[in-house]
From TrEMBL:
Catalyzes the circularization of gamma-N-acetyl-alpha,gamma-diaminobutyric acid (ADABA) to ectoine (1,4,5,6-tetrahydro-2-methyl-4-pyrimidine carboxylic acid), which is an excellent osmoprotectant. One of its GO terms (molecular function) is ectoine synthase activity. This is L-ectoine synthase. PANTHER family: L-ECTOINE SYNTHASE (PTHR39289:SF1), PTHR39289. Its EC number is 4.2.1.108. Residues 1-16 have a biased composition (Basic and acidic residues).
Amino acid sequence: MIVRTTDEITDTDRDVSSPNGNWRSKRIVLAADGAGFSFHETTITAGTVNEFHYANHVEAVWLVEGEGTLTDLETGQVYELGPGSMYLLDGHERHRLEPRTQMRMLCVFNPPVTGQEVHDENGVYPLLTA
């Protein structure tokens, strides 16, 4: 059994921020934990524009705090997000998040991330192994 708190993850190597300061991700469950998925608490700063493309991962996101828009860059469709919204990137969709207020979300990745991935210039996480 693994029991962790976000307080004990804060300011450790499991607490990763984007180079531009737009987001912060606390990696609670990682590939090395052997669960077959990773689980993160991610906050995205209000007023930022964030483009992502998980070419190597499927991601499920549940928004627990904040409001903003999600744009599917493949289709142009825009979705309004608020607390309780969930989206699943099961087709490796390129997407844009634009928070009006700080967004806090719980995210699951498959395959699991190792914890040190940072989005490349195309918004993609590399496929790393533990």
